[in-house]
TrEMBL record:
Name the record gives this protein: GMC family oxidoreductase
Domain (Glucose-methanol-choline oxidoreductase N-terminal): residue spans on this chain: 11-317
Organism: Paludibaculum fermentans
GO molecular function: flavin adenine dinucleotide binding; oxidoreductase activity, acting on CH-OH group of donors
InterPro entries tied to this protein: FAD/NAD-bd_sf (IPR036188), GMC_OxRdtase_N (IPR000172), GMC_OxRtase_C (IPR007867)
Pfam families the UniProt entry points to: GMC_oxred_C (PF05199), GMC_oxred_N (PF00732)
Family note: Belongs to the GMC oxidoreductase family.
Domain Glucose-methanol-choline oxidoreductase C-terminal: start-end pairs: 412-531
Family matches, as Gene3D superfamilies: FAD/NAD(P)-binding domain (3.50.50.60)
Keywords, sorted A to Z: FAD, Flavoprotein, Oxidoreductase
Keyword Cell membrane: no
Entry keyword Flavoprotein: yes
Length: 547
């Protein structure tokens, strides 16, 4: 494996190796550029992944650990932020693409122009994107074929046009999918096989899904989940021009008096400070961490944070929203097997003014519980919480339950943001992110409306008992979007339509932070399509001597 020296001037430093960073590293290195990827987490190989629920989900062995990297949270500026873990991301090579559920929807064409289609939403910073679905479609297709996506083209009557089918057929339908599909059709809806970033068949030297069930939040030892760790990072390393450098906690992107970035300063695994020189930097750390890093990189030219002449860095933060409803069924479902999701509907996806609010939802059928989490949080809140009756209930409900999850709109609101906490520090002595977020009134109405639709579906599926969870409990966010929005106006956005910073010509910001709207969540396909497009633009700019 190639090793560049920190004093060596490489073409690109990529900060983060997840859904976007891994794609960018592969594209730039295969285009002939020298690339160093700085990943704060470990380089965990497939043989090291485990099905230990306690370690993975409660000791955070492959995700950010709040004991080392806390954040603070408040609902508004009038409150004092408290230390509360409110966001999660994969902290290892491959990032969140290693442990995500693997839903892989494209955004719909109208998602890119909803401000024009729907009109203004008071109290929000609702805006059209500077790119269209048609412009992004070739990159969606490239992502699906390079990463490896299983699905059925044409099965979703609401999706946009596509230039190629999925490279792999859908994964087998689960019991939840069968019951959900029957119920949806009974209600006049249009269920379809869930597009999943999991291989239904062997593909490009990787094995197919073994249906072990340990998928969401876990790494895949079969290499069947189409993470960047399994798909594109090996291709990047194979070029001999890409070094994946793990255990590197970046604290600052360095810039010069001319306003150009010159590299990144990070702490290595021994907490020694290192400066890696580069001709250009690609920031792909996620919607919270990327904003934090720019705010921690001020200079004389950018006193309020790198690339922040607009003051928009960190603003318009969008949350991972959705209602969760569960149902008990008469017969065993064996939902603990295979991937979490096999059927979806998009009938409620589009916004409809007749509802009296802005918003919509995609809804899937799933069982994303494991024994410990189901015992702690999966049973009806009204049931016994301890003792022999609790034990009996747990044993029965675990194999007779499935849930629906709605993936709902999170409206961009400028006051919802990420900034630096003035007092709380992480284990390295650096400021932690302070998250300020509250639901837009339309988001709250949308969540309750979606919850009611989910109850209808579960009842139509034959559930003998249905229970749900409060929709105003926003919980922990995994989809971190909108904090460095893309736009044509440098005064109201941070990056241009190719993810290039308006203020800094050799800085690209490529992750969920550039999303202008949230669609109906499930941003990974769009993030990766944007990453392929941005990498192409960065390579062209480099070849033309612009960076």
């Amino acid at each position: 494996m190639i090793t560049y020296q920190p004093a060596e001037l490489v073409d690109f430093v990529v900060i983060g190796s997840g859904a976007a960073g891994g794609v960018v590293a592969k594209e730039l290195s295969t285009a002939g550029f020298s690339v160093v990827v700085l990943e704060q987490g470990a380089y965990v190989k497939e043989k090291d992944f485990t099905h230990d629920e306690l370690a993975v989900n409660y000791q955070h062995t492959i995700a950010n650990n709040s004991k080392l990297q806390p954040n603070t949270f408040r609902s508004s500026d009038s409150e004092t932020a408290k230390v509360e873990q409110r966001y999660t991301y994969g902290r290892l090579v491959g990032g969140g693409s290693v442990h995500f559920t693997a839903n892989y929807w494209r955004f719909h064409p109208d998602d890119f122009r909803e401000r024009s289609v729907f009109g203004d939403v008071p109290g929000s910073s609702f805006a059209d994107w500077p790119v269209s679905y048609d412009e992004l479609e070739p990159y969606y297709t490239k992502a699906e074929w390079e990463i490896g996506i299983s699905g059925l083209a044409g099965a979703n009557p609401f999706e946009g046009p596509r230039s190629k089918p999925y490279p792999l057929p859908p994964l087998p339908v689960k019991s939840s999918g069968v019951l959900f599909e029957r119920a949806a059709k009974k209600l006049g809806l249009h269920p379809f096989p869930a597009p999943m970033a999991v291989l239904s068949q062997p593909y490009r030297g990787r094995g197919a899904c073994s249906h072990c069930g340990w998928c969401e939040t876990f790494g895949c030892e079969m290499r069947a989940k189409s993470s960047t760790l399994a798909s594109v990072i090996p291709l990047a390393e194979k070029t001999g021009r890409c070094e994946i450098r793990s255990g590197c906690y970046v604290r600052r992107i360095q810039s010069n008096d001319a306003g150009r970035v010159t590299g990144a300063i990070y702490y290595d695994a021994q907490r020694r400070e290192v400066f890696q020189r580069a001709r250009a930097v690609v920031l792909s750390a996620n919607g919270v961490e990327s904003a934090k890093l720019l705010l921690m990189s001020p200079s004389k030219r950018f006193p309020h944070g790198l690339a922040n002449s607009s003051g928009m860095v960190g603003k318009n933060f969008m949350w991972d929203l959705g209602a969760f409803v569960s149902g008990l069924f008469e017969h065993p479902l064996n939902e603990y097997k295979s991937v979490q999701v096999s059927r979806v509907i998009h009938d409620y996806y589009a916004a409809d003014p007749k509802r009296g609010f802005y918003g919509g939802a995609g809804i899937d059928a799933r069982f994303n519980w494991f024994p410990i989490s189901f015992g702690l949080d999966g049973l009806p809140p009204s049931g016994p919480q301890w003792g022999s009756e609790y034990k009996k209930m747990l044993g029965h409900y675990f194999n007779h339950t499935f849930s629906t999850l709605s993936h709902t709109t999170s409206l961009p609101v400028e006051a919802n943001r990420v900034d630096l906490d003035p007092t709380v520090k992480d284990a390295w002595g650096l400021p932690v992110p302070r998250l300020t977020y509250q639901l837009h009134p339309d988001d709250r109405k949308n969540l309750e409306w979606a919850r009611q639709r989910q109850v209808e579906i579960l009842e139509a599926a034959g559930a003998t008992q249905v229970w749900s969870y409060p929709v105003d409990d926003i919980g922990v966010s995994a989809h971190l979007m909108g904090t460095m929005r893309m736009g044509n106006d440098p005064a109201r956005s941070v990056v241009n339509r190719f993810n290039r910073a308006h203020d800094v010509p050799n800085l690209f910001i490529v992750d969920g932070s550039s999303l202008v709207t949230s669609g109906r969540q499930q941003p990974t396909a769009t993030i990766q399509a944007l990453a392929y497009r941005a990498a192409e633009a960065a390579a062209l700019a480099a070849k033309q001597g612009e960076i």
